[in-house]
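User: Can you model how iron/sulfur cluster sits in this protein?
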Amino acid sequence: MKEKKPEKKGTEIVRKPIVAIVSYEKPLSSVRKAVDLAHGLDNLPRRARVFIKPNVVFWRGVYPGVLPKWGVITTSRVVEDVVVLLNERGVNEIIIGEGPVFYPKDEEAPTRAFESLGYDVLKKRYGVQYIDVFQRPFETVDLGEGVTLNFNNDFLSSDFVVNIPVLKTHAQTVVSLGIKNLKGMIDMQSRKKCHSVNPEKNLNYMIAKLPDRLPPSLTILDGIYTNEGGPGFDGRIRRSNILVASPDLLSADMVGAKILGYDPAEVPHLLYAAKHQDRPIDLSDVKVVGRKLEDVVCPHKYVAPYNEEGTLPKELEKRGIKGLSYRQCDLTLCTSCFGLNMIIPTAIARAWKGAPWNEVEILTGKVMLPSAGKKKTILIGKCIYQANRDNPDIQEMIAVKGCPPSAKAIVKAFHQAGIEVTAEIFEQRESLPDLFMKRYRNKSEFEESHFVIE
Ligand code: SF4
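Assistant: Here's the modeled complex, given as structure tokens:
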């Protein structure tokens, strides 16, 4: 169902969607304050079947402590507080659902993630169910304009959704908030479809359509930790202590974008969504309550800075790397290939020994074309190989054709291009979080207890 527009009388708006901004101070009372100020559960149907959608994007290992979750995964603190509030209102049918992606495939990872986050405690205490949506049925939904996507059935058939994304940036979509969080409710085929090569129906256009069949909902942006250069654990995480709540998804996202330093008009999927819902994009039809918006704005960059030519991340350029071009990924790159972006720069940095490489270019996604004068072109993924396999502008093609490409094939390709990356960093992708965990040692503001339910 399309989100309800504010009613208008002439040009006067008589009911503005409310968005509450509160500081996170302590368990339960902070979430309660945000929800109450926003009237977030006022329209909760009696005996509702409620679906909670957190953001659980990465997991590994068996020990919860070794994953840098701050600013990446929704805190269990907020999830538990929401369950308590629902319980107080007599809700006894609650499902927590997520469709996390793991590569290499790990069938047990979702359960391990949910249990490590304490959802099994919520099950024992409140009868909450938790599901990996990939193990559940999907239903094809026609979203109009020729777009069909397959949505998880439990989500579609719930009476009420509590959508709890992290307040974070995203290298492709500028911000990843409530609307983007709904991408976890569609199946893998639909997710790939969202990264379309059609510029008129690109990722931003597609995700703006995700709320069309959203049941009545409450959105809570969990900004206890926020993520600059997100959405993953390679971003720069801040302790921000902000909660944003609204019964209106788009309004919550527009305020969330503003907090992260972006006018909603600068966020293409919010622009699409506002147009789609016939809403202004300048927050003029939104009522902000609680803390003042201008007092909590804290700019977060959404991409790691690149050099002026756009050919290399500044981080790599600073090391003096020459003879390599690795452009910023585009919207066509889907999640499995996107994950490689956390590894490739580190692998390149470690392989650099000071001697220029032989004009190597790395292409990703589905539509990139080679630059002039490159001697070796590494094509990462089946899609970019198919787009360029007959391209006469490529002098030496080094194709990694998998979907997603295998670690072994990527390492072989780099070696063929003369870049001696180590196999371990790709093969032991699982150990990457350990590397990032070092950033959090002895920093008391990053609390492990926010991801534990006792
Ligand atoms: S090769 Fe990469 S970009 Fe292409 S469909 Fe597979 S995961 Fe997506």
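A couple of observations from the model: The mean pLDDT is 92. Residues 76-88 form the longest helix (13 residues).
User: Helpful, thanks.
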